Amino acid sequence: MSVYQHCPRCAASLQTENQGGFDRRVCKTAGCGFVFWDNPTPVVAAVVEHEGKLLLARNIAWPPGTFALITGFLERNEIPDEAVQREVAEETGLQPLAANFIGHYSFERMNQLIIAYHVPAQGEVRLNEELAEWKHVSFDEAEYWPAATGLALRDWLRARGHQPREMEWPRRR
């Protein structure tokens, strides 16, 4: 449930009320009527294919050895397939060649809707300030993590005839 305790419009205390089959935080103050819908945030994710391999990256906030897909928030008025190509270019310095839809996945822990694409890309990798390092992984050696972007990677690999292994989760060192 939400961290909202007070109405952002009138500062009154919010109450929990069932609306549309879900518990929502609502303002009962006359004339206000604020409802915190807590809708998921749309995020694009890229299974980047570079030089015949997968390109995975580590965010600067993640522990060493933790690699994942390139992701980013969908901006206002942005089309998802354009957004994912923008993210690949911004975060890796690569030139995206296309964006092919894989699927959409719920990432409940972060309340996000992941919209995943396969993005073939070319060029020299030049990471931006968000990423600490990157690596290539062959399709046959790829492992997937059992959550949103990992499931997108799994589905893309399986659709191409690969049998990826599920990695131990949470990852043990």
From TrEMBL:
Keyword field contains Transport: no
Molecular function, one GO term: metal ion binding
GO cellular component: cytosol
One matching Pfam family: NUDIX
UniProt cross-references to Gene3D superfamilies, sorted A to Z: Nucleoside Triphosphate Pyrophosphohydrolase (3.90.79.10)
Keyword DNA-binding part of the UniProt annotation: no
One of the GO biological process terms: NADP+ catabolic process
InterPro entries in the cross-refs: NAD-cap_RNA_hydrolase_NudC, NUDIX_hydrolase-like_dom_sf, NUDIX_hydrolase_CS, NUDIX_hydrolase_dom
Domain Nudix hydrolase: 39-159
Assigned keywords, A-Z: Hydrolase, Magnesium, Metal-binding
Cofactor: Mg(2+)
The name this protein goes by in its record: NUDIX hydrolase
Protein's organism: Solimonas terrae
Lineage, top ranks: Bacteria, Pseudomonadati, Pseudomonadota, Gammaproteobacteria, Nevskiales
